[in-house]
Design brief:
Number of strands: 14
CATH architecture of the largest domain: Distorted Sandwich
Number of domains: 3
CATH superfamily of the largest domain: Glucose Permease (Domain IIA)
Helix content: 25-40%
Shape: rod-shaped
């Protein structure tokens, strides 16, 4: 083990002292001294920064920079949300127009749900939140309107009840029996006997039986004041009270009642008045 030899001479006493110190003691002592100096400096800087005006100012500047960054991010997010909300409101009014709902003016949307509210510390944010809440309720109203219209569409007699040939349309014609002019309240569709007849739309059967002049007849109530009639049938496949779907077989083509041959007399009544069935039919015939 290396040691440091130290000699001290006392001139007055004419005496010399000699002693040796291990080197690792010296190294350890130096380390302690330098460590103490470093720790003291760090502690002094911490105290200055923490408990003096200079330290407080530095900390406040740092915190202010962080807050500014957050505010800039929030401002950008709010601006993006404002643009998105404006686009949503435009689309909302287009959808309202498509489903025949009243359009909502921009100033009404700004008032939001619940009417006028006193200003707060963040009026712009409050306005956006009111507009967003209003848009949500408007979209729910549109959704309900669309569902209602879809329900109504399912109950509109929009398909041909049978595939065949139209031999007599809606309106005035010469009677095949008397030869005189008469008003024909539907259309006659010729088809082979036994050809399936389907419901033109969803609805409930309110009559299924024999009707004077019309023979075996089915009447369906589709709601919204719309009724359809299927006359001169050979057989009936439904009973009163049955809920039927568009395209469901309800009878077959025949020649029952007052008729000159096998055909379907198909009629549509709206609010108690006969209308032209062809105005409701959307799909083309096969013949």
């Amino acid at each position: 083990m290396e040691r440091l030899q130290v000699m001290v001479t006392l001139t007055r006493r004419n005496k010399a002292l000699s002693f040796s110190i291990p080197l690792h003691y010296i190294y350890f002592g130096l380390a302690v001294i330098f460590g103490s100096l470093f720790f003291s400096g760090a502690l002094t800087r911490f105290i200055i920064r923490r408990f003096t005006n200079h330290g407080l100012l530095t900390r406040l500047i740092t915190e202010n920079n962080i807050l500014n960054q957050k505010l800039n991010a929030y401002a950008a997010a709010i601006d993006s949300f404002r643009q998105f909300l404006s686009f949503t409101e435009q689309m909302d009014n287009r959808l309202r127009s498509a489903v025949n709902l009243q359009l909502v003016p921009a100033d009404v949307r700004k008032m939001g749900v619940g009417g006028y509210q006193p200003p707060t510390v963040a009026p712009e944010v409050d306005e956006l939140l009111r507009r967003a809440t209003f848009a949500r309720q408007s979209l729910l109203e549109i959704d309900q309107a669309v569902a209602s219209q879809q329900e109504k569409i399912r109950h509109l007699p929009s398909i041909w009840p049978v595939q065949g040939w139209v031999t007599s349309g809606f309106g005035y014609r010469q009677s095949p029996f008397s030869g005189k002019q008469e008003f024909h309240e539907g259309m006659d569709i010729v088809a082979p006997p036994g050809t399936p007849i389907v419901a033109a739309a969803d609805g409930r059967v309110i009559f299924a039986g024999w009707r004077a002049g019309y023979g075996r007849t089915v009447e369906i109530d589709h709601g919204w004041g719309i009724h359809t009639f299927y006359a001169h049938c050979q057989t009936l496949r439904v009973n009163v009270g049955k809920q039927v779907r568009r395209g469901e077989v309800i009878a077959t083509v025949g020649a029952s009642g007052l008729t000159t041959g096998n055909h379907l007399h198909y009629g549509v009544m709206v609010n108690g008045k006969w209308v032209n069935p062809a105005q409701y039919i959307l799909n083309p015939k096969s013949h």
